[in-house]
Amino acid sequence: QRLGLRRLHGLNLDPWDNFRRMTMPTLLVRGEVSDVLSPEIAARMREARPELEVLEVSDRGHVPTLTEPVAREAVDAFLARLRS
């Protein structure tokens, strides 16, 4: 809460509050060498939402292409669980 501003005109401006309130199943796919989404932030996201599924794609930057076999398998499995 750097600016001390959490709400403006009734809108919640704190992304962590909004993230914690999410109820939908979520799969986080991050590139191992991302310069945007650090392992520490991914861990903080997991602490905020323990049910969060996390996949780290080796040798990829911030945005894995999702053509990596490990990413495709994880996304397919995640979507299959949603369908059942």
What's this entry about, in short?
The chain has 3 helices and 4 strands. The protein has helices at residues 15-21, 39-48, 69-83, and strands at residues 7-8, 11-12, 27-31, 53-57.
Protein described:
With 84 residues, this protein is an alpha+beta fold. The protein contains three helices and four strands; from the N terminus they run ββαβαβα. The strands form two sheets. A two-stranded antiparallel ribbon has the order 1-2. Strand 1 and strand 2 form a beta hairpin. The chain is globular and about 45 Å long. The termini are far apart.
Strand content: 15-25%
Helix content: 25-40%
Strand line-up in the sheet with most strands: 1-2
Question: How much is the average pLDDT?
Answer: 90
Sheet with most strands: 2 strands, antiparallel
Order of helices and strands: EEHEHEH
If helices are DSSP runs of H or I spanning 4 or more residues, what is the number of helices? 3
Shape: globular
The count of DSSP E runs of length 2 or more, i.e. the number of strands, is 4
Low-confidence stretches: none
**How much is the radius of gyration in Å?**
15 Å
**Kindly, what is the distance between the CA atoms of the first and last residues, rounded to a whole number of angstroms?**
39 Å
Look at the helices and sheets and give the structural class: alpha+beta
